[in-house]
Design brief:
Domain ABC transporter: 9-244
Oligomer: single chain
Protein name: Branched chain amino acid ABC transporter ATPase
Largest sheet: 6 strands, mixed
CATH superfamily of the domain at 1-82 and 201-248: P-loop containing nucleotide triphosphate hydrolases
Keywords: ATP-binding, Cell inner membrane, Cell membrane, Membrane, Nucleotide-binding, Transport
InterPro entries: AAA+_ATPase, ABC_AA/LPS_Transport, ABC_transporter-like_ATP-bd, BCA_ABC_TP_C, P-loop_NTPase
Order of helices and strands: EEEEHEEHEHHHEHEHEEHH
GO molecular function, one term: ATP binding
């Protein structure tokens, strides 16, 4: 993360309660322009709740959410996505019965207003190429292997050309070769489009290789933040989550 980069997303003491359960407590999360930030933690740490809060699918019980410098604490998911924060979901963000081409085309509807069909198809082709989906464009998305379906979700989100792309476990179901190519694709997305990326991911080897900075959640609270090398050596993080997972 370069010093002085603009803050694209900031949560200030954001808390979310479900009845008597505090799922996220006093979260102060900052995402800066141009970085790839990893959000990690054990199951139940509050990662999915955090993603739902920043994308508008949940509202904070208390605290403030700012996106691109604007108060978005009570904005809807549609309002937030149209501002340029677009997310994928852990269990897929695509239409199973549609072709890969038509899925990615959906991502252009609100973001290429007035564009010609040729311009939309160019956007589809470019997005598919980056994610290695060109050979699958005319196949029905639901018929593809699970890992490839993950890439369809990312391509659909990429077609909107977001300022901030939030990916929920994008590497689940991918083999080692597919993981490597997807990491390269995410780097390309940042470099080519100036896209900032926030991801939740359990593949620690991939997180350490890809991310500029990592935030660790534990029991709904922010346990640590730092570079991959700092997180790898953080004793609290090792005790709470990493253990031998970081591949030392």
């Amino acid at each position: 993360m370069a010093e002085g980069n603009a803050v694209l997303l900031q949560t200030t003491n954001v808390t979310r309660r479900f009845a008597g359960l505090v799922a996220v407590a006093d979260l102060n999360l900052t995402v800066c322009e141009g970085e790839i930030l990893g959000l990690i933690g054990p199951n139940g740490a509050g990662k999915s709740t955090t993603f739902n809060l920043i994308s508008g699918f949940l509202k904070p019980s208390s605290g403030r959410l700012e996106i691109f410098g604007k108060d978005c604490t009570r904005k809807s998911p549609t309002e937030i996505s149209r501002m340029g924060l677009v997310r994928t979901f852990q269990h897929g963000s695509y239409m199973r019965s549609m072709t890969v081409r038509d899925n990615i085309l959906l991502g252009t509807i609100h973001w290429l207003s007035g564009a010609s069909s040729a311009q939309r198809q160019q956007r589809v082709a470019e997005s598919a190429d980056i994610l290695g989906l060109t050979s699958h464009l005319d196949r029905v998305a639901g018929s593809l292997p699970h890992g490839i379906q993950r890439l369809v979700s990312i391509a659909l989100a990429l077609a909107t050309r977001p300022r901030l792309l939030c990916l929920d476990e994008p590497l689940t179901g991918l083999n080692e070769t597919e993981v490597a190519s997807t990491l390269n694709a995410l780097r390309t997305i940042r470099e080519r489009f100036g896209c900032t990326i926030l991801l939740v991911e359990h593949n620690m080897k991939a997180v350490m290789a890809l991310c500029d900075r990592i935030v660790v959640l534990h029991h709904g609270q922010q346990l640590a933040t730092g570079s991959p090398s700092q997180i790898r050596l953080n004793e609290k993080v090792i005790a709470a989550y990493l253990g031998s997972r970081h591949g030392k």
